[in-house]
Amino acid sequence: MDRRRSPRVEATFSVRVWGLDANTKPFMETARATSISTTGTLIQGLYRPIRLGEVLDVQLGELKCQFRVIWVGKLGTRNAGELGLESVASETSLWDVNLRRCNQFAAHG
């Protein structure tokens, strides 16, 4: 059973991610945001240790939002370099798309 609070759309956006890694060292890297929703996203391509609960800044174009790390892909698995992020501010979204409409289109396409 899917526990997600909002619908997800498979998409890929190049984003800038910054914050503190698990060693409390600041970083800024480019990664991919995929599987987006109004409340979260999956980040791929971020191969540094990040702690659960850490708040990261994510930028898409000129828009910036803060996300909390709720899932980390384990090194040595096919999920290495992935982070599950949940938006800290529910009223702000980076994705300028109607996710519900995208899901309806995909289901009938």
CATH superfamily: predicted glycosyltransferase like domains
Poorly predicted runs are 98-109
Could you tell me the CATH topology label. Answer: Thrombin, subunit H
Mean pLDDT equals: 82
Radius of gyration: 14 Å
Beta-sheet strand percentage? over 45%
Sheet with the most strands, sense and barrel status: 6 strands, antiparallel, barrel
Number of helices: 1
Decide which structural class fits the backbone.
mainly beta
Give the overall form: globular
User: What are the secondary-structure elements, in order, as H or E?
Assistant: EEEEEEH
List the domain count as a whole number.
1
Number of strands: 6
Oligomer: single chain
Strand order of the largest sheet: 1-2-3-6-5-4
Name of the level-1 CATH class:
Mainly Beta
The helical percent reads under 10%
Q: What is the CATH architecture assignment?
A: Beta Barrel
Distance between the termini: 24 Å
Describe this structure in words.
The protein is mainly beta. The chain has one domain (9-108): Thrombin, subunit H. 9% of the residues lie in helices and 46% in strands. The protein has 1 helix and 6 strands, in the order E-E-E-E-E-E-H. It has one helix at 99-108; strands spanning 9-20, 26-36, 40-44, 55-60, 63-72, 82-87. The chain has a 6-stranded antiparallel β-barrel with strand order 1-2-3-6-5-4. The relative contact order is 0.23. The model is unreliable at 98-109 (pLDDT under 50).
Compact description:
The chain has 109 residues and is mainly β. The chain is built from one helix and six strands.
